[in-house]
């Protein structure tokens, strides 16, 4: 699958390996800043963040056993990760995080456009969910043509092209 996603020259996707664990954990922490606001001791907070990370990873593995975790690189520098779950009728983006220092420069748009092109070549759709509080990510997805198809109190599910 990863071999079929066409990216601009400076970009690459590679499968995540065990030695990427620290980077992937740092990405998790950067996307969960609300956990740092909890009134806990530093030790309790670290334990909670690690537990939340392990629960997320186990949940993804259970819910999406065919998913692949890919590290996003720009000029050979790891800048983010994307977890893709391919299916017969589409690709679901399970998780997508760009490291904070690389946000806002268009890297995410390039990756999402490439995933959309991959899906379009397969006559498939792309779906994802976004936390309703994450307005920056939601704006990106809407700007790239994703449209909501389901809403819960905490999440919005979007699809491209829209169903």
From TrEMBL:
Signal peptide: none annotated. It comes from the Bacteria. It is an enzyme of class 2 (transferase). It holds the Pfam family Acetyltransf_1. InterPro entries: Acyl_CoA_acyltransferase, GNAT_dom. Residues 11-163 form the N-acetyltransferase domain. GO terms for molecular function: acyltransferase activity. Its EC number is 2.3.1.-. Keywords: Acyltransferase, Transferase. This is GNAT family N-acetyltransferase. It comes from Shewanella scandinavica.
């Amino acid at each position: 699958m990863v071999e079929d996603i066409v990216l601009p020259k400076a970009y690459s996707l590679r499968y995540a390996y065990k030695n990427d664990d620290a980077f992937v954990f740092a990405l998790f922490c950067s996307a969960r800043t609300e956990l740092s606001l909890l009134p806990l001791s530093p030790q309790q907070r670290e334990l909670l963040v690690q537990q939340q990370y392990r629960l997320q990873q186990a949940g993804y593995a259970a819910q999406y056993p065919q998913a692949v975790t890919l590290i996003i690189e720009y000029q050979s520098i790891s800048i983010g990760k994307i977890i893709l779950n391919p299916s017969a009728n589409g690709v679901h983006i399970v998780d997508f995080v760009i490291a904070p220092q690389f946000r806002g420069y268009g890297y995410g748009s390039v990756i999402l456009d490439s995933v959309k092109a991959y899906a379009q070549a397969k006559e498939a759709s792309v779906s994802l969910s976004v936390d309703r509080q994450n307005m920056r990510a939601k704006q990106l997805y809407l700007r790239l043509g994703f449209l909501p198809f389901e809403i819960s109190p905490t999440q919005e599910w979007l699809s491209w092209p829209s169903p």
